[in-house]
Every structure is written in structure tokens, then in C-alpha cells.
Amino acid sequence: MGRVGGNPPSTNPIASIFAWTRGLEHRGNLDGNKDLVRYAQVMEEACIETVDAGKITKDLAGCIYGIKNVKPDQYLNTEDFLDAINETFGKMWK
């Protein structure tokens, strides 16, 4: 990930993930590919579960605490957030 002002970015990639998963789910439905449909659905669930577990990016923390009140221990940078989603997905996919 690139750095902005020397700090690692902390932006929420969920909208991009859901754009892809919705497309993958649609493709899976068109092709009758149940595994692709399941993959897309589990990925979305993993995103939601990760946020529900309190693992969030700075923009989401700003919505909760007010951007001026956000402290570094209240959010993850983008890369760590994606890692958290991946970890959650791995547990759910089994």
C-alpha cells in the first residue's frame, strides 16, 4: 500500500469488495457455479463480521467517535484491515 503523508492509509475497501462480490455472485448464478456464489456470499459475510468484531478503518472510526477524537488504537490501516477480513474469511470458508 502507498503512504500518504508518511502514514499508512486507512480507508475502507468494503464498497470495492462488495462491487466485486456482487459481480462474482451474478456470474456464478449465470454459470450455475455454486462455489463462486458461495465464495462471494462468504466474503461479504466476512467483511460484515470483521466490522462487527470492532476491526475497522479510520474512516469508520471517525463515524463512531468523531474524526477529531479518533485514536490510533481504535482503527486498522487498510492493509491490516484486509488481513483481518482475510482471516475471518478463512475461518468462515472451512
In short:
With 94 residues, this protein is mainly α. Helices cover 65% and strands 0% of the residues. The protein has one domain.
Report the structural category. mainly alpha
The poorly predicted ranges are none
What's the structural domain tally? 1
Distance between the termini: 28 Å
Shape, per Cα inertia axes: elongated
Helix share, percent? 55-70%
Task: Summarize the structure in words.
By secondary structure, this protein is mostly helical. It has one domain (14-93). Helix content is 65%, strand content 0%. The protein contains four helices and no strands. The chain has helices spanning 14-31, 34-52, 58-65, 78-93. Helix 1 packs antiparallel against helix 2 and helix 2 (34-52) packs across helix 4 (78-93). It starts with 13 loop residues before the first helix and ends with a helix. The mean pLDDT is 94. It holds the Pfam family Iso_dh. GO terms for molecular function: isocitrate dehydrogenase (NADP+) activity; metal ion binding. Belongs to the isocitrate and isopropylmalate dehydrogenases family.
